[in-house]
Amino acid sequence: MRLSADPTTDTVLKLVTVVVAMFAFVFVVMVPLYDVLCDALGINGKTSAQAYVAAPAAVDTERSVTVQFIATNNDSMPWEFRPQVTSMAVHPGAANDTVFFAANPTMQHMIAQAIPSVSPARAAEYFHKTECFCFNQQPLEGQSDTLMPLQFIVDQDLPRDIKTITLSYTLFDVTDRVSERIASR
Amino acid sequence: MSVVKRISSALMPLAVFPSVAFGDNQVNMSPGVTSIGAEIYDLHMLIMIICVVIGIGVFGVMFYSIIYHRKSRGVVPSQFHESTKVEVAWTVVPFLILIGMAVPATSTLLEVYDNDDAELDILITGYQWKWKYEYLDENGENVSFFSNLATPQEEIYNTDQKGENYLLEVDEPLVIPVNTKVRFLVTANDVIHSWWVPEIAVKRDAIPGFINETWTKVPEEGIYRGQCTELCGAYHGFMPVVVHAVSREEFDAWMGSKRADKIAQVAASAVDLSLDELMTRGESVYNSQCLACHGAQGEGGVGKAIAGSAIALGDVGTHLDVGIKGVAGTAMQAYGSQLNDADMAAVITYQRNAFGNNTGDVIQPSDVVNHKQG
Amino acid sequence: MGDHHHGPAKGITRWFFTTNHKDIGTMYLWFSFAMFILGGTFAMIIRAELFQPGMQLVEPGFFNQMTTLHGLVMVFGAIMPSFVGLANWLIPMMIGAPDMALPRMNNWSFWILPPGFLMLASTLFMEGGAPAFGWTFYAPLSTTYAAPSVTFFIFAIHVLGASSIMGSINIIATVMNMRAPGMTYMKMPLFVWTWLITAFLLVAVMPVLAGAVTMMLMDIHFGTSFFSAAGGGDPVLFQHIFWFFGHPEVYIIILPAFGVVSQIIPAFSRKPLFGYASMVYATASIAFLSFIVWAHHMYTVGMPVAGELFFMYATMLIAVPTGVKVFNWITTMWRGALSFETPMLFCIGFLVLFTIGGFTGLMLSIAPADFQYHDTYFVVAHFHYVMVAGAVFSMTAAVYYWLPKWTGKMYNETMGKVHFWISFIGFNITFFPQHFVGLAGMPRRIPDYALQFADFNMMSSIGAFIYGASQILFLYNVLATIIAGKKVTDEKVWDGAEGLEWTVPTPAPYHTFEVPPKLDPAHAHG
């Protein structure tokens, strides 16, 4: 398709279109594609940010999978943050729950965001969280603590060669981010 | 013996680069002590030898031309300039060689990724600029500690003779039992780091907010040294990795003593120390944690001066805040989670009394505990 | 047709307002040489600090600024603009066109470069110092943890990128629309082909770099979380986006160099380039493959094994067309009548040393082995072999080869040969030992190292000073030639040279091919 009668102008306009398209490609294709692939293939160790709606299914009582919990603070996040249990043996298909303890030792109100990461990465798509404190930001008054719930199901289709799943939460201090957004309204 | 090993052994006489040559200077990769390290070494040698052979052939042809096809010899140049047959040949043959290389490469890569059935799990966290190691215990009694560069600043800045393990020594090494499959869970606290020990052939990037896993099984007792291998800021070159592989018995004993230490530390938070004890301990903590940025005389450098500073001479609470919480937006980290209460009390006491500061302030471990609780 | 034959304008404003491809080519070449010296100075500081273990000259933070700026200035300021300068000078003449398709945009493409680099260099004097996160600027070191100068770094990258994009659009428009009648694509000199393909790569991936730095800007200043896990983002996303640009970028650097070598070797072999069509297809294959191999820069990042395998296989494949090119160059020499003037010496040096760099590239492509090579000096050795002994040697050969046509003066051949030998020896003393220390366990980007790496580091630093010094000799030769060199008036300066640029007078007139040339039908291609 000719964009101009003059061949040089035609070439230039087409190339400029490519330039703009490649710039847009980064934002509009690469970023979502990365997220989609990670989500769909579960290859980033990222679990879904939404609650999993469980369909009723049989529990595989023959098989036992160990789920390990790790809690880490990012950078200078001062909260105490630890899993109540560091590991549990679960059956694929069964609903499990546990809690994480968090305490804000400072005098200020703070807001935290827990970011989950699963290892091995390919287990992420088989690890379903029906309720997780990581779905929302966690506000805590200064000098207070809380128990944050996690409910999950390990899918029956988890590859048989995976016997241990490690779920790690990194706790980030997002107090400033949130207050900026509120202030800008 | 694997296919790779057979081919490499056969070609070994052609090996141009032995493991150690040119005096004490290592010129080649080391096979290390693990089976995966040996596999990687064999693969490396195979590819290198193939390349050397091809190189000799190709450059041989070229040098022949350079000698015999010279204008100065009076040759008349040929004018041939294409041959489909030849182009196909030197497209297909390299392609086949590549397939030959890809097969052993694939099988070795699959080995690297086989993280299952580990007996011991260790969480490795990269910090600016040190490593934290946490042994995951199913009962929740994790042993964790930081591993800092132990080489003194005097050696780095050339006022002292450099030791044998210059830049590759730490205060607290990672201790693992031999012949045990150990799974490493690798993450980072701030920026991207990378954990590497060449002799056990393990390297994995440490990404903040994400967990990576890798594994090792070390068959031989020994001390294995490595470094951070991802640019992570100013002191990227100063956060080494040291792994001690020891017998099962020694490992169990070491774990026992570490657990005892942990209990002792908690108890120590309630015990008051004398000024002398605090100063001695504080100086040692200062040298390991603060000196690099704040100077041997507290004169400052990358970090602010402590000698005569408003913070060191002013309100104790503010000084404790800086040490415990760090200063956001600067390189001053939050040491509250890195130093136990007694060490924190000691180093703050030291800063307030050394370098001519002489405030006479004595900060006890219990003061630190109270301050953290507000 | 009016009287069109005026020479260049008088005075200094000639250079600010010129739209002449020869003038603009000259400015690009001088600018890139100045950047080569600037980047080289940073390298001398690096090698001086690494001369011995211990910190002697600079602080670790400043050292990181040096390694970062060395990379940025060499890649974006020296190598890329130098080949653009060559493109400007040669492409119109090689295709029988009077100038580039868009002469005024051509002026802009050049003139935004000096302010861009001034801005980048000025970050050295800003609070917090210059960028210190490596030329690859991974997040979050380059976002959350960066010094304030990062914003100026981002702006500078935008400016430099805009220059490259404009230059590439110009090259494509020129080559596609302004070839002399009868010059079909398969009759174009290979240098034009390689630049045409390079220009398409640039148009495709420079905007991706612009996207990456814009996302950084947004994360730093506008509260987004593209690369921060806290907001649901991922630092590894940065690496994917960066290397999607970064890998084609290294082919952008080397393809024009391949083109130069493809012009010079036939000239000094007095024999046509062997396998012209294959060379075109091989170049196109390399360009295509360059889009699907990026994650071989990220083998240790924790990618799933299927991804690692795909990228390993695709990367290994690039050895095939690259090998084809090397075989073709050597076969061009075979049974030719060779002579070894300076341009040919640099091309032979290129052939040997670039091939060695290609071999280490093949070793690096093997993912499990790369776990031991990644982020060590083995990688540093590899890319300096392909970029310095590859691209820079080729560029140097080009200058010696075409300088007589540009200036009408012949350079001093003995001095040229001396420059070659000192460069060749100095280069190898600098970079060959880096393979050893890398294999022995020395990481990249460290200002100080363990004692077992000391001897080879000292050797490497000595080599660097030698190589650096020889560039002064080069500068002297070029200046002496321009000012007082022996006059040359033959159109065909070199008896084996072929191509339309060798049919115009020497020195080339300010305007050439204002009337398109009649092509010699017997002459197949350049």
Can you put this structure into words, describing what you see?
The complex is a heterotrimer of chains A (185), B (374) and C (526). Chain A has two helices and nine strands, in the order H-E-E-E-E-E-E-E-E-E-H. With 185 residues, chain A is an alpha+beta fold. Chain B is an alpha+beta fold. In chain B, strands 3-2-1-5-8 form a five-stranded mixed beta sheet. In chain B, strands 4-10-9-6-7 form a five-stranded mixed beta sheet, covered by helices on one side. In chain B, strand 1 (120-127) and strand 2 (130-135) form a beta hairpin. The longest helix of chain C has 36 residues, at 60-95. Chain C has 16 helices and two strands. Helix content of chain C is 66%, strand content 1%. Chains in contact: A-B, A-C, B-C. At the B-C interface, helix 2, helix 3, strand 7 and strand 9 of B face helix 3, helix 8, helix 9, helix 10 and helix 11 of C.
Produce the secondary structure layout.
The complex is a heterotrimer of chains A (185), B (374) and C (526).
Chain A: H1 7-41, E1 65-73, E2 80-83, E3 87-90, E4 95-104, E5 110-119, E6 127-132, E7 138-140, E8 144-154, E9 164-173, H2 175-183
Parallel strand pairs in A: 1-9
Antiparallel strand pairs in A: 1-3, 2-4, 4-8, 5-7, 5-9, 6-8
Chain B: H1 3-11, H2 35-68, H3 84-112, E1 120-127, E2 130-135, E3 143-147, H4 153-156, E4 174-177, E5 181-188, E6 193-197, E7 202-206, E8 212-217, E9 222-228, E10 241-246, H5 248-268, H6 275-294, H7 310-313, H8 316-325, H9 341-353, H10 365-373
Parallel strand pairs in B: 1-5, 4-10
Antiparallel strand pairs in B: 1-2, 2-3, 5-8, 6-7, 6-9, 9-10
Chain C: H1 13-17, H2 21-49, H3 60-95, H4 103-111, H5 113-122, H6 150-177, H7 190-221, H8 235-269, H9 276-289, H10 305-317, H11 319-333, H12 342-365, H13 367-373, H14 377-407, E1 409-410, H15 413-440, H16 454-484, E2 486-487
